[in-house]
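[#protein-structures] MJ: dropping Lacal_2735 family protein here for a structure pass
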Amino acid sequence: MMNLFKKDPKKKLAKQYEKLMQEAYKLSTVNRRLSDEKYAEAEEVVKKIEALKNQKA
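AK: finished. C-alpha cells for Lacal_2735 family protein:
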C-alpha cells in the first residue's frame, strides 16, 4: 500500500531550490559572495533532483 503521507522528494527539493534562488537574488544586491554561495547550494539541489529523475528512469 502506498503511503499517502509520504512526501515526494523531488517536490521537497524543488521547494528548497526555489528558496535558495530567492535568497541568492536578494543577497545579490547586498553581498555578492553570500549570493554566490546560495547559488552554489541551489546548483547542488538541482544535481540531487537530476539524480532522483535518473533513478526512476
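MJ: nice. The chain has a mean pLDDT of 90.
AK: one more thing. Residues 9-56 form one domain.
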